[in-house]
Amino acid sequence: MSPSRPPIRTAVAALAVLLLALAIAACGEKSEDGNASTEPVSLALDFYPNPDHIGIYEAQKLGYFADAGLDVSINAPTDPAAPIKQVAAGQTDLAISYEPEVMLAREQGLDVKAVAAIVNRPLTSLIWLRKSGIKGVGDLRGKTIATAGIPYQDAFLNTILGRANLDPDSVKTVNVGLGLLPALIGGRADAMLGGFSNVEGVDLKMRHKDPTVTPVDQLGVPTYDELVLVAKGSAIHEDPEPLRLFIAALARGTAAAVSDPEGATKALLEQNPDLDPKLTAAEVKATLPALSQASGDEPFGAMDENQWREFIGWMRDHGQISSLPSPAQVLTEELLPGKIPD
């Protein structure tokens, strides 16, 4: 290829950036009263503000959403399962959810799709403490395992036990809801399944509990995108531009957080003063490498259709869903940065 001519991929990316800049400029046009007009966009988190949301709050603090002509409102749910249902009902424009929840929503006939990965690998982990004497999954026989009572995570546990040739009846499970850490630390359980490696795993290390933390995809469960951004299917087709601009601004916020962890931690603490600063800084440090970022030919938020296809099959084979949707039915990458709109 002639050195005077840029590669086709570079030219396409440059065109996409130009289109995005034009869209942002259009969103920032002044209204009749002379003020810059903004498009309201509502986002429902999956939980209270925590390090998983670091890119969102960095984008908000640094004005990246405003730069894109968006007025973003961020809401935390009381029920982590509610946001995806709110998207389907048109009560919020976007929500943070989980790949398994997207499949469950489609099974229920909800009009939702994943539009970007925020964390593109499992954080959900099997965790035990050194004092338990457990050396591996095979040592769980006769032990008590705390769970959050989430059905697909119970299926995770059955897969993990089966890989170690353990019958599910050979262990005792106790549903502790959100009380995973107290159950493990207090001795009510010998191990727990459902905590995140970058949150509960870090918390236990900071307490000097010497935990063993193993993400479920290292124990036989197919890999999946832990956190995804979800939108209503009809909105993707009828009014995609605010969604596209949100994801582009989120990509900027995520890159800024990776470049400045201290500043990103401060932005998060401003949103949730109840967080412990020292623990939060450690959790942010553990979270940043897991955030979905643009790399090589992949744009920010990219989702692997083959990976989703395998996980969909696992969900069906383990009785979590009865249908077998194609990846195209549950996700789209058409809103990601660098993707040229049709």
Count of helix runs: 14
Question: On the 0-100 scale, what is the average pLDDT?
Answer: 89
Tell me about the largest β-sheet: 5 strands, mixed
Q: Helix coverage percent of residues?
A: 40-55%
Main-sheet strand order equals: 2-1-3-10-4
The shape, in one word, is globular
Textual characterization of the structure:
By secondary structure, this protein is of the alpha/beta class. Helix content is 40%, strand content 16%. It contains 14 helices and 10 strands. It has a 5-stranded mixed beta sheet with strand order 2-1-3-10-4, sandwiched between helices. A 5-stranded mixed beta sheet has the order 7-6-8-5-9, with helices on both faces. α6 links the parallel β6 and β7. The protein is globular and about 60 Å long. The two termini are 28 Å apart.
Secondary-structure topology with pairs:
Elements: H1 8-27, E1 39-44, H2 54-61, H3 64-67, E2 70-75, H4 82-88, E3 94-97, H5 99-107, E4 112-119, E5 124-129, E6 144-147, H6 151-163, E7 172-175, H7 180-185, E8 191-196, H8 200-206, E9 211-215, E10 227-232, H9 233-238, H10 241-259, H11 261-271, H12 277-287, H13 305-317, H14 327-330
Parallel strand pairs: 1-2, 1-3, 6-7, 6-8
Antiparallel strand pairs: 3-10, 4-10, 5-8, 5-9
Helix pairs in contact: 2-10, 2-11, 10-11, 11-12
